[in-house]
Design a protein that fits this description.
single chain; about 230 residues; mainly alpha; Arc Repressor Mutant, subunit A; 2 domains; 10 helices; GntR family transcriptional regulator; WH-like_DNA-bd_sf; DNA-binding
Length: about 230
């Protein structure tokens, strides 16, 4: 991954996607709300094209329901379904960290250290958007260091589906600093070749994300329907 790719500015569609996901998860657009492209374009000050792309991406993540010949609506997801995905994600990322501790190359070690250092700088500067751009690179480097293409593909697939939730929970007070510290611990375990330690620390890191999201959901107004 090049520096240009890492530090590129988000596209308009990506910016709209983030704002729309925040509105859904915060409860500003509650479950069942009709997604009107024209209204959202006016709300975000953009054309309908990036809104359409953002809706498509959030439909892939499960935040929006789109059906043939019907208007798109905010999905009625349950808290339990999202947390179940985080549980699976924790195991996949834990396995990536385990294999990375055994297989990471010298080049991979340097790239991981650089990403961790960059993320720490952004955390100290409280630059949330920059931090989570590098945060994604940090995780991506661990997937690659596992040297298992199938695992990398499946982990990335679920990560992409959970991205709106992961980004949203990251905005909780104190979460960026906590994430930064957890990254340092995961990296240290990988670099010293501690496969069990790296796997456990990574699992805990992802599970905490789910717990933070659950705490947010349980605070009114809820952005997701409780499973009951």
């Amino acid at each position: 991954m090049t520096d240009q790719q890492t530090h590129r500015r988000p596209t308009i569609a990506e910016q709209v996607q983030k704002r729309l996901a925040d509105d859904i998860l915060s409860g500003s657009l509650p479950p069942g709300s009709v997604i009107e492209e024209t209204t959202l374009a006016e709300r975000y000050g953009v054309s309908r094209t990036p809104v359409r792309e953002a809706v498509r991406r959030l439909a892939e993540s499960g935040l929006i329901d789109t059906r043939p010949r019907q208007r798109a609506v905010v999905a009625r997801l349950t808290m339990s379904s999202v947390l179940e995905m985080f549980e699976v994600m924790a195991e996949l990322e834990g396995l990536c960290a385990r294999l990375a501790a055994r297989r990471i190359t010298p080049e991979g070690r340097m790239a991981l250290q650089a990403a961790c250092a960059a993320a720490h700088t952004h955390a100290m500067n409280r630059d949330i958007d920059a931090y989570y751009a590098v945060n994604e690179q940090f995780h991506e480097l661990i997937y690659q260091a596992a040297h298992n293409q199938y695992l990398e593909q499946e982990t990335r697939r679920l990560r992409d589906r959970l991205r709106p939730y992961r980004l949203h929970q990251g905005r909780s007070p104190g979460r960026m600093a906590g994430s930064d510290g957890e990254h340092a611990q995961v990296m240290a375990a990988i670099l010293r070749g501690d496969a069990d330690g790296a796997a456990g620390l990574m699992r805990a890191h992802v599970v905490i994300q789910g717990d933070v999201l659950r705490d947010f959901i349980l605070r009114p107004p809820p952005g997701l329907a409780d499973a009951g």
